[in-house]
Queue: 3 jobs
Job 1
Amino acid sequence: MKSRFIKEEIAYTGEQLQSHFAYRQYGILGDCIIGFRGPCDVKISHMVDIEDKRAGNKIYSEDMLHFIVEHHDTDLEKSVLRQWLLATIVKELINAIKGKNVITRAGSDLFDQDAKVTVSVATVTPVSSVIHFGINVTSTNTPVKTKGLSDYGIEPFAFANDVMTQYIKESAAVHKACYKVTWTE
């Protein structure tokens, strides 16, 4: 599995949540996790979460740390579990940095009490499963109460690399756990 932090600012619109985005844009072929920083403004036409569409939810942040993950399988349940793994990694890293449990997880969402810290979605394409995971860097002008990495004194670039490294380690450990077992008669 490959990773890369894209240093240029990218505005996340939901259009990036597609198969081969990392390959088409950055030449990263295969299973990967990429990170980048930029605003987030997902219009209803690009939302894949039907509940958000039905509720008319606004997905917006002036400054987020984004991750796009792609695995070349099309199992939606596995994609959701990977999304939750990514949320758990982010939660554990923030809590470790702060030295206390300030972040809680409910499914794929992370909170600091009643303030939302992340947005996230997992879906499948005809050839792969894809995840978008966004962490607020700031909480300025968000449509709901939020907190961001700046509230915790966390530098986004280093944090992104820690998240991607840990996600790759966990993914490799899952594969190893699968490879080392057999059935009994």
Job 2
Amino acid sequence: MSAQFPDEQTEEGAFERQEDAFRHWVTEDGSSEFPAEPGRYHVYVSLACPWAHRTIIIRKLKGLENIIGMTVVDPIRDERGWAFRKGPGHFLDPVNGFQFLSDAYTMTDPAYQSRVTVPVLWDTQARRIVNNSEDDIMRMFNQTFNRFTNIQTDFYPESLRSDIDQLNESIYENVNDGVYKAGFATSQQAYEKAVCALFETLDQLERRLSNQRYLFGSQITETDWKLFVTLIRFDVVYHGHFKCNIRRIIDYPNLFGYLKDLYQHEGIAETVNSNHIKCHYYITHDDINPTRIVPVGPEQDLLSPHGREGVP
């Protein structure tokens, strides 16, 4: 079986994701070469991609839509990578006129040879990539631009940072990236190892959410949104396309109620585009889905009562 990304595949058939290449930081106090300024930065995203979705959510929840621009790429990616095309929910690049996101990478580093990924935080003045790590971008959006917004909600509170970092690591390894480790595995052993770790962790999260509304009690943190972007794609894509089919999220009473609770949070539903999600995975990954047929379902009732209000 051919690998989706051969350079990120081990000899044992396991998928090992590449490291993010650009990790510069926008600073609130101007101590870096990238000071926080309204209108200076632009984020390139895909509505299909869970990693990019995290940054879209925090940008919206922090009220930064008029402070940081955003352009959505075509969800269908070919051998040339993410492209800027005009279509339903995706657009041409209004900042640089790039045809492909790879243009941003080579403008920043002409020697760049690795895979081009979203999200990308772009500096319109320096005309280069600041950062392509979704974790970093989330945290910059959470705090660095606070003086330009009236919304001071903190999704990475200092009192919880150690616990957040610890749970983030488990969720990333076994759930966020776990679905990809299962889906991109090219050996039975690698697939089974990933899918078992995935469902062991989902079972743990189901128990954790039995007595608290969110992952850290009554307060929503970045960890909730990091989990949300995988859960919202799970039954639609990962269960079938990536063979993560021991159970569905709808089969977990607490996780499904939690998913609906977060989805019904003000502004979140409009960040979810199921058509982009399904078209990206089922058409782009033609080694996994050679016919490129996109499933019609499943239907998801995400607006019915979630029943989480009474959970502490």
Job 3
Amino acid sequence: MALNKVTVDDLNVLGKRVLVRVDFNVPLKDGVITDDNRIKAALPTINKLIADGGKVILCSHLGKPKNGPEDKFSLAPAAARLQELLGKTVVFANDDEVVGENAKKAVENMQNGDVVLLQNTRFRKEETKNLEPFSAELASLADIFVMDAFGSAHRAHCSTAGVTDHIKTTAVGYLMQKEIDYLGNAVETPVRPFVAILGGAKVADKLNVISNLIEKCDTLIIGGGMAYTFLKAKGYEIGTSLVDNEKIDYCREMIEKAEKAGKQLLLPIDTTITADFPTPIDAEIEVSVVPSNQIPADMMGLDIGTKTAELFANAVKTAKTVVWNGPMGVFENPILAKGTIAVAKALAETDATTIIGGGDSAAAVIQLGFADKMSHISTGGGASLEYLEGKVLPGIDVIADKN
């Protein structure tokens, strides 16, 4: 099921207007970008199209504006940062209706190699519902559509899918191609042994991922808050730890599924416990480590224990492919980050292909300084999860296949 999509390398963009869906959904504090990784990740595709003489029209969403246009969700800071990174003028078409007079004029005046950034696509109510006339309006600006926003590929929106009803020449950008190569192929055609590590708080968020990965991988490791529902499914007392009582039977089924399939399912054998969740999240707290089946009634587990960290690290050592999605504990607290650090370190030290699913695990790896040791860090949280579930992502599906 390896995907073979048309890429920007297959296009002739000279003199053509190219609409590129990028992911500039960057965190802002008081109008200042606090992390510009997503903008930097889009640069290879943008630079390629500039170098090839295309007229580059960028569109993206930012945040979740509920009531139409709002200043705090404007893409103006992204335009300014992109201009700095490219070292050339980026014209920001500031239209509340996104495809308004400013955008039309800016596109009309473009020379080959120019760059225009449209206003936040979610300023239009139609965007998230994939409704006309917004798709047609976006498409009217361009001759070619390039999808390079993996973080939004799991959504069928006007700017990720709808535009392709009107623009017939389509391709994926370099960022999308990398995600397809790593995430898609890691799961569909992995070099074995293939180890998958799942963490994070909720079992409910990862139901289908767990089921799909048991079928695909050789070893499935479960840590983080979701592990306690599995431990309860095994009949352990878990104190006041996070639990999803409605999913206990499901966890039991998954334990049986792994057994039947001859797959190794690793759960924490010890856990780091404390009396209360830290407030603020990085507050200093007293912790101790106990076996997973000996959590006191008035204590909660907030990280894997030292023996578990060793067990998980050893499982990674023999792997050829590792996919990791979700931290092992409350990694925002230095005292409760040890499990996540141990796993990140094990991945950094292995020769295996290491793929970090987006969201919190990507944040953890970057924050802990292991980013350059990983083969690939996904730029999509929800999108990478749905990809790991084996779902077809609309934003990839609509792009032309190579003949």
